[in-house]
Amino acid sequence: MKIKEILNLIKGELLEGDYEGEINAIEQDTRLIQNGDTFIAFKGKIDGNDFVNVAIEKGASTVIVNIQNIDTKGKKCNVIYVEDSLYALQEIIRYKMNNINTEVIGITGSVGKTSTREIVTEVLSTKYSVFKNEKNFNGLRGLPLTCSKIDNEDISVIEMGMDGLGQIDLLSNIIKPKIGVITNIGSSHIGILRSKENILKAKTEILNGIRNNGFLILNIDDEYLNNYSLSYQKDERNISLITFGINNENAMFNATNIKEKAGKTYFNVNITPEINLTFEINSLGTHNIYNSLTSIIIGKIFDLTHEEIQKGLLNLKSTERRLQKIELNNFILYDDSYNASYESVKAAIDFLSKEKSKGRYIYILGDVLELGDFAEEYHRKIGDALTKNKIDVLITAGENSIFINEQLNENGIKIEQYHFNNVDDLIENLIQFKENDTVLVKASNGMKFNKLVSYLKENFSNFETIN
Questions:
Q1: Among 111, 132, 143, 154, which has the minimal tally of Cβ within 10 Å of its Cβ?
Q2: CB neighbour list of residue 399: distance below 8 Å, 6 or more residues apart
C-alpha cells in the first residue's frame, strides 16, 4: 500500500520522502529489518526512535516515528510522524486486511490456540497457500506486526490472544475473519478478569469482527461454550454456528470410536448424518483430537477432500515445548514447558498417567502465572488432579507451586516430594533419574523451565525428539 493511502487514517504527517512510497512488512526490531521493510518506533524500556538510522542502514525504506525532530543524517527514506505508534500500526493493518484477497481464520481460547493454528495450517496447506502468525505474536501489537507480512496467500490463520476485555473485539475488527474459533474457556488471565464468565465474554468478542455469512466454531465439551451455544442466535450478518466435541451427541462434528496404538490416534467423525469418516493423527492425547476436529471442520468449509485433510493431519510435527516427547539416555521426557494454565496442567497430568511406563512417573511442575488472588486455589486443584493419577515423584519450583505439595500431603498421598524457590535451585539439586522413568516438565513460560529442559538434554545426551 502507498503512504498516501494511509496517512490520514493513522493521523500521520510525512516529514520526509514521497507520498507514493510503499508501506511493506513492518518491524519494530531493527535486527529483523530486511531491504524495503517499514520500521515503526515504540517508546518503552527502549525508545525505538533512537534506532531509526540503524533501521535505515539495514534497508528500511520507510520509518514511522512518534517524535518530530528525527535526523536521518541525509539518508534517503520516507519518514512518517504519528502521535500514537500502536494506533497507527493497527489502522494500517485494518486498512490492509480490508483491501487484500485472503480468507482469514481467527483462533482464540484459553488453551490450545497455537497447536490449533499449526494443525489448521497443515491441513489447509495441502490445497492452498497459507499464512500464519509468527511464534506467539497474537496480541495488540504482535498480531498487526505479523499480519503486515501477509503477501497474497489464499488463507491467513491468525492466533488471537488477550489479557483483558475489549482486546479480542479490537483484533477481530482489524483482521475481519471469515471463521472464528474458540478452543475453550479456562482459567488463564482469571487474575485480571476475575471470573470465567468474564473470560467467556472476552473470548466471544471474536464474533464482533466475523464477516457476513461467516462461521463461529465452538468446542461444546467446554461447559461455558456449550451454554453460550445454546443461547446463540444469528443476526443480520448470518454467521453460522458450528460445534464440535468428543463422544458428544449434541455436537455437529463428534469424534467417536477413539483408539490409540503405537503412538497414533484413530477416531471417527460424522461429517454429515450420512457420512462418517475415519481419521488418523501421529500423536496421543485428547487435546490433539480437539485440535484435529477444528482442522477437519475448517477443511470441509474450504472444500478439502478426506484425503487432503488426512494428509495434512499426518504432516503435523510435534510443536517444540508443547508436550514434546524426547527420549534421553535411559528415560522419557515430556517437555511441556512453553506455558501453563490450570487446565493445560491437568490435561498433561491426565495424559502422562495414561502412558505406559516401566519406571516411575515423575512430575516437575512450576508456577502457573497470572492467577492473581486465585493462585492458591488453582495450585491446590493441581494437587487434587495429581492425587487421582499415577505419581511417584513430585518436584515443584516457584512461589505458588508449594500449594501442590501441600495439597498432596493433605490428601494423604505418600510419595517422594521436593520443592525449590526457582528453577535454578531445582537444577542444582536435581534428583537422580532411573532407567525407564517417565518425566513431565510443565510450567508457565515466565518460570523459565526451558532452562531445565536444556540442562537435561545437555547432560543426558543422545536424545531423540519423537514426532
A1: 154
A2: 367, 421
Cα 91 to Cα 218, 249, 331, 378, distances in angstroms: 29, 43, 51, 39
| Beta bridge partners of residue 465, listed in sequence order | 326
Give CA–CA dist 253/298, Å, rounded: 11
- pLDDT above 90 coverage of the chain, percent: 86
> CB atoms < 10 A from the CB of 406, how many?
16
| Separation CA 28–CA 3 (nearest Å) | 18
d(CA 157, CA 147): 10
In this structure, the chain runs to a length of 467
Compute how many other C-beta atoms are within 10 angstroms of the C-beta atom of residue 247.
Answer: 12
Three-state DSSP class for 419? strand
Q: Which three cell numbers stand for residue 37?
A: 521493510
Task: Map residue 158 onto helix, strand or coil.
Answer: strand
Cβ–Cβ < 8 Å for 49, 37: no
SS3 state at 174: helix
Q: How many angstroms separate the CA atoms of 81 and 21, rounded?
A: 15
Which helix (H) or strand (E) segment holds residue 287: the answer is helix 286-301
286 three-class SS? helix
**Tens-digit pLDDT profile for residues 164-187:** 999 999 999 999 999 999 999 999
Q: Please, what's the b/e burial string for 272-307 (b: 16 or more CB within 10 A of its CB; e: otherwise)?
A: eeeeeeebebbbbbbbbbbbbbbbbbbbbbbebebe
**Per-residue pLDDT tens for 224-243?**
999 999 999 999 999 999 99
**pTM of the full structure:** 0.91
Three cell numbers, residue 304: 478439502
Residues 357-403: tens digit of each pLDDT = 899 999 999 999 999 999 999 999 999 999 999 999 999 999 999 99
Query: For the segment 394-408, what is each residue's pLDDT rounded down to a tens digit?
Result: 999 999 999 999 999
- Calpha distance 135→460 (Å, rounded): 28
Could you give the domains of the chain?
3-91 (3.40.1390.10), 100-315 (3.40.1190.10), 324-466 (3.90.190.20)
> What is the distance between the alpha carbons of residues 103 and 17, in angstroms, rounded to a whole number?
33
